[in-house]
């Protein structure tokens, strides 16, 4: 269909067709060597069922030298491995000859590496938890038999505990030991240094006590400590993986293939990163632009929703600039690359995402600063305790035991869990309300919000046009009148062959019916058919020939003309999200300022702002303009919450103090945001209320953890606790902060 605006260009015809053969060459650059084999990752389009999958896999497997051909029907990704001189172009051509679309895709292992790290921590945590439960059973037997159990029996139970604890310490504790060794090797210390030292000392002293037949061993403390610490490490790994998901998704888009035209006019598929400024690019219908380009041939409708946020396609013609991220809809376009992929709009948005991640890392720098103070304090305290007891006449094992107890009791479990456990409980409460939290440190930032910037389409509005009314010769027609119903039915008979959003909205109102035969879709104009010797047209005002002043004064519209009869105008509206007015009033009552910054046209943004009573608004804003507005607000000491759903919002979402995306937002915007909500905007006041309560709980937990250390350290240093009691005390401090966090489940 078309971008139906009064200024639509003319409707040229005769564009040269694009054949499948033209776009299926040049795959050699995507081949990689895997041992003695060659491999390539392809994206197959059009495979919908098991029959398609079987046909594609069998055809590719039949090629000489192919050892593996595996297609994922859900994602459309296919991996092929082969030996020998088989050309990758032949593999792609085989799939194309079966009638399926095919493109190359570069491999990205970053996300897989993070997933493996998270899975490894989860397995280690499970092993430590299982071992801790079993060792505690043996320890309970020792405690219960105090004074009655024989030395041989006690030593046997200690030995069994040690046999269980040793492989757990080596397997589950490797995460701490590797980190500590890496830090020490580079001449500095981190939090894993005292943790590793405490684990090693407690295990070593326990082995010594077991060998000499001592009464106490602390293998249970070693494994329990490892288990608790791995919980926090696993939560941290999951949050870090989610924080990088947006940049990874955007990077994956930039590794896709581009069809480059040679001097002879041949089409060659190359990686987007290999395109240089000045290269001629062919953009087929359905393809996404990977680089910024200036059109020199063709007229087509282009979906810029990822770039501008505008839901309706816009018509592109020669001389216009098309940005990376836009999707060609209806006809082939040829253009000249203006920049390399690293300088395209997609890349700039990626840089914004990275800048946002770096800005949020200020919280991590604060944590690193705390570690730099905590580590020498703990080491010094434990060393002085050991030395002091030796000077007072204690034996070396007893002095080492007190040092180990000091290291264990001061282990930052409660401090480490103070924030995560509150975040987990609060996230669970929000999840039950349809809100999915993506960022672990979001609650503290959400609690500070005093200004909210909204995108328009898909955020404040539904993003789906709906027929609002009909106008004929300047007079409004009632939609239920016989005349209106007749014209609507005729127009819908043409609209049923189009996928344009306005055509879909027209058909939705008209209901079921037959599609007119012989309808032609003319890029940049609309739909045309010959009916009983008359020419029927449904499309833009400029093409229909209606009054330009009248067309310019209206919003999104379709115009329908039957022969020489007066044209009827179908007017559409993008309805406001349900519950928006009440949600905005609640936010205003909380003293929060509201603003709209949208890539949509000024008129549409102004109209919506007036309806919702929002005085501050900006229309036709580029992704860079949105970021610039947020930076201006930040310079004015505002704590800004950005709410958006499109690719053009991704940079602003990442750079904002906090950010939210609706459930219908694209994946990149969801990944760039702190939380994703379903339903209407009434979720936002709830999120902010829970965030404030969560911040208060976290501060209480930090206070409780600090008070615990103030009390526990002197007791441990003076030798009044064993490592086992220290481990129990450390666990109790963790339980206390956990129970305090559970108060977040109480509804207000």
Low-confidence stretches: 1-25, 106-110, 352-368
Dominant shape? elongated
The number of helical elements comes to: 26
Rg, rounded, reads: 33 Å
Sum this structure up briefly.
This protein is α+β, with helices and mostly antiparallel strands and 748 residues long. The protein contains 26 helices and 28 strands.
Q: How is this structure best described in words?
A:
The two termini are 51 Å apart. Helix 6 packs antiparallel against helix 12 and helix 12 packs antiparallel against helix 25. The strands form five sheets. The chain has a seven-stranded mixed β-sheet with strand order 15-28-27-26-16-24-25, sandwiched between helices. The chain has a seven-stranded antiparallel β-sheet with strand order 18-17-23-22-21-20-19. Strands 7-6-8-14-9-12 form a six-stranded antiparallel β-sheet, with no helix packed on it. Strand 17 and strand 18 form a beta hairpin. The chain is elongated, with a radius of gyration of 33 Å. Helix content is 50%, strand content 18%. Among the domains are: 79 residues, Alpha-Beta Plaits (2-Layer Sandwich), CATH 3.30.70; 92 residues, Calcium-transporting ATPase, cytoplasmic transduction domain A (Distorted Sandwich); 108 residues, Calcium-transporting ATPase, cytoplasmic domain N, CATH 3.40.1110.10. It is of the alpha+beta class and 748 residues long. The longest helix is centred in the N-terminal third of the chain and has 35 residues.
């Amino acid at each position: 269909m078309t971008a139906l605006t009064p200024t639509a260009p003319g409707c040229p015809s005769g564009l040269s067709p694009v054949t499948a053969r033209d776009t299926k060459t040049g795959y050699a650059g995507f081949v990689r060597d895997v041992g003695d084999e060659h491999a390539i990752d392809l994206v197959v389009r059009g495979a919908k069922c098991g029959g398609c999958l079987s046909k594609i896999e069998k055809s590719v497997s039949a090629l000489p030298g192919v050892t593996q051909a595996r297609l994922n029907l859900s994602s459309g990704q296919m991996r092929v491995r082969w030996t020998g001189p088989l050309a990758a172009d032949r593999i792609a051509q085989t799939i194309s000859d079966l009638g399926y679309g095919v493109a190359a895709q570069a491999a990205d292992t970053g996300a897989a590496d993070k997933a493996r790290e998270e899975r490894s921590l989860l397995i280690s945590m499970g092993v430590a938890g299982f071992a801790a439960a079993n060792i505690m059973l043996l320890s309970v037997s020792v405690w219960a038999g105090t004074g009655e159990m024989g030395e041989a029996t006690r030593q046997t139970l200690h030995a069994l505990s040690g046999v269980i604890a040793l492989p757990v310490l080596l397997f589950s504790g490797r995460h701490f030991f590797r980190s500590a060794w890496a830090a020490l090797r580079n001449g500095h210390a981190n939090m894993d240094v005292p943790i590793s030292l405490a684990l090693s000392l407690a295990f070593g002293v326990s082995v010594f006590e077991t060998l000499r037949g001592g009464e106490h061993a602390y293998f249970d403390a070693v494994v329990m400590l490892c288990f608790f610490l791995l919980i926090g490490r696993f939560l941290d790994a999951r949050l870090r993986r989610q924080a990088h998901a947006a940049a990874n998704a955007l990077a994956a888009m930039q590794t896709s293939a581009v069809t480059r035209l040679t001097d002879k006019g041949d089409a060659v598929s190359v990686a987007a990163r290999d395109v240089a400024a000045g290269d001629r690019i062919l953009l087929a219908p359905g393809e996404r632009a990977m680089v910024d380009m200036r059109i020199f041939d063709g007229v087509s409708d282009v979906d810029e929703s990822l770039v501008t946020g505008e839901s309706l396609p816009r018509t592109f013609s020669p001389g216009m600039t098309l940005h990376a991220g836009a999707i060609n809809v209806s006809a082939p376009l040829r253009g000249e690359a203006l920049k390399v992929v690293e300088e395209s709009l997609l890349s700039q948005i990626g840089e914004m995402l990275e800048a946002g991640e770096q800005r949020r890392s200020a919280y991590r720098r604060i944590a690193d600063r705390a570690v730099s103070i905590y580590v020498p304090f703990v080491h010094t305290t434990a060393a002085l305790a050991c030395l002091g007891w030796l000077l007072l006449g204690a034996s070396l094992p007893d002095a080492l035991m007190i040092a180990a107890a000091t290291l264990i009791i001061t282990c930052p479990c409660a401090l480490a869990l103070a924030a995560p456990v509150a975040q987990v409980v609060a996230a669970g409460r929000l999840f039950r309300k349809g809100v999915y939290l993506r960022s672990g440190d979001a609650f503290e930032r959400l609690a500070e919000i005093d200004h909210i910037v909204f995108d328009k389409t898909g955020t404040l509005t539904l993003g789906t046009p709906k027929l609002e009314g009909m106008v004929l010769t300047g007079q409004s027609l009632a939609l239920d009148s016989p005349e209106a119903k007749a014209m609507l039915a005729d127009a819908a008979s043409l609209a049923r062959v189009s996928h344009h959003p306005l055509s879909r909205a027209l058909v939705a109102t008209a209901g079921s019916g037959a599609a007119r035969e012989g309808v032609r879709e003319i890029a940049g104009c609309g739909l045309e058919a010959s009916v009983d010797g008359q020419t029927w047209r449904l499309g833009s005002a400029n093409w229909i020939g209606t009054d330009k002043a009248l067309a310019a004064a209206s919003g999104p519209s379709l115009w329908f003309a039957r022969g020489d009869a007066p044209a009827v105008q179908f007017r559409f509206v993008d309805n406001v999200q349900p519950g928006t007015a009440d949600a905005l009033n609640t936010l205003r009552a909380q003293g929060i300022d509201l603003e709209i910054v949208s890539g949509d046209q000024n008129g549409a943004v102004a109209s919506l702002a007036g309806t919702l009573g929002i005085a501050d608004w900006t229309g036709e804003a580029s992704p860079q303009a949105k970021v610039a507005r947020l930076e201006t607000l930040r310079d004015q000491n505002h704590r800004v919450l950005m709410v958006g759903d499109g690719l053009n919002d991704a940079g602003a979402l990442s750079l904002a103090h906090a950010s939210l995306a609706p459930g219908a937002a694209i994946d990149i915007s969801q990944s760039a945001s702190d939380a994703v909500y379903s339903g209407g905007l009434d979720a936002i006041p709830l999120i902010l209320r829970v965030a404030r309560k969560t911040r208060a709980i976290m501060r209480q937990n930090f206070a409780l953890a600090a008070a615990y250390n103030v009390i526990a350290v002197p007791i441990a240093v003076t030798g009044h606790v064993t490592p086992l009691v220290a481990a129990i005390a450390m666990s109790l401090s963790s339980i206390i902060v956990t129970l305090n966090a559970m108060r977040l489940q109480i509804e207000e």
